[in-house]
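Contributing new complexes? Match this layout with PMV.
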Amino acid sequence: MKSKASAPGKVILFGEHFVVYGVKAILCAINKRITVTAEKIEENIICIQSNIGKLELEPNKDVSKINSPLKPFYYLANKIIKNKNTGIKIKVESEIPLGVGLGSSSACCVAGAAAISRLFSNISKEEILELAIEAEKTIFPNTSGADCTVCTFGGIMEYDKKNGFSKIKYEPDFHLVIANSNIKHSTELIVEDVKLFKKNNENEFSNLCKDERKLVEDVLELFKKNNIKVLGEKVNENQRYLETIGISNEKIRKMIQIGKESSFGSKITGAGGGGCVFALTDDTNLNKTINQFRNKNYECFSVKIDLEGLNTF
Ligand code: PMV
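Output block (do not edit by hand):
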């Protein structure tokens, strides 16, 4: 018997970094997915295969000693097959580039938790989310759980530290062109850099938080009106704040410039220092924006909001 599940990646539309200091962020699930297939096997082993490699281990190993990006799958499989006298084989297929802030690890944890657990019982999305966050903590101990939440439920979500998550019911009709700088970033290190910026510029940082808070409130209103053009101006404004706190670099600035040429606005998504930028478009300027990136040899692809979230087959 096989069990299959898929979960979408995500982008942070607004509020990255400032969210660490209590401001609201807006996240969006994107229609690029990770699909996980799980299968019981007779041999007492946990075997994980993906396009980034293979991990094959007996059950009951100390997870903290495993040095592999596939560790969350091992954690999930080991927990779920406990006392069940079976081994497990897991196959991972991905449409999401890894390590560039597009939620690949969260999508893996959500799809993995669903595919493996549903070999044994039909647990709810809420329980799957709980398992997925536990698994993600084996690689990112400080995760807020925001990424796993948006990958599980899909759509657009607002998140802040105090109030947690809530789904935004409006579905603005935009496309995002995502361009990859191919510079891998460490979110942890960049968060530390921003902490230092804050320490050296307390007043400026506090004003930026105020401005970002206002910007996010404006954005929530624009979603209701489906006003993509003015939303683009907010994207550019948010990018200026991210520039100010020092998470951009020469390559990203070039990419943002290209993104802005024919889209409504362009910004970093996620931690910055590398990773991805997006350009906000609708049907009228989508192809032109893609071509502009490709003509300058930047890898890019377009996405829409994923409304489905976790899907099991
Ligand atoms: O690089 P990503 O997409 O995982 O985004 C990190 C978002 C930050 O706001 C920079 C950090 C955080 O924990 O919210």
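Reviewers usually confirm one structural detail per submission. For this one: The chain is about 40% helix and 25% strand.
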